[in-house]
Design a protein that fits this description.
Strand content: 5-15%
Oligomer: single chain
Low-confidence stretches: none
Radius of gyration: 18 Å
Helix content: 40-55%
Shape: globular
Number of strands: 9
Length: about 260
Amino acid sequence: MTRPPAAFVKHRHDAPPGFFEVEAAGLRWLGVPGGVPVVQPLEVTATSLTTPHLDTVPPTGAAADEFGRLLAVTHAAGARWYGVPPDGWETDGFIGTIELPHSLSPLDSWGAFYANLRLRPYLRTAYDAGTIDSAHLKVFERLCHKLEAGAYDDPAERPSRVHGDLWSGNVVWCPDGVHLIDPAAHGGHRETDLAMLNLFGMPQVERVLRAYDEAHPLADGWRERVDLHRLHPLLTHLVMFGAAYLPRAMAVAHHY
């Protein structure tokens, strides 16, 4: 296939099986009519992913408002259950450079999904690596038990079609509005995407959140749950980059 001149190529010669293929599946799945524009794959191989090049501009308030409204549409497209992989994919995925577990059978409880597929796998890895000890693990396990018991479940919330790694670096401000890149797409809780937006800071984030809430009102107390939804990315960073992320993750676990 001849690449168009204005293309962006991600390449990793040692990519694990499915690394770029699941990303491409996620990009396609997130490309919801009326939702946030998502960069689409032009070519996918075992070691590379080619997408259109995106021109960037400074973020504006108007673009932030539109992003919030469109993100609500993307989420509302829904997913069959919590943890479901994007259409066309039938095994686990990746977040950053590490595995992201998917569920191939229905999970209707967000709390059980979050405890067993978003917290415990990374806690085990961190414990096995010596990054956390049994005392740390006890604190995290207390929270996992609360999640499994439904302490933070909301029966009114159905699984959303989420980007899964929606930190500011994966939000590209373009002349025609925001475009999304680099997903870890799955069926999840829409509050998780919103919590990720400002994990490392993002311009115009309050306008994004306000416009989102106007388009698809969030449940009472959602701001008090932001750090709970950030615990998963904190644990992935703990696994990838080490103990510098442990104090923040522990503070979250103690709080909830």
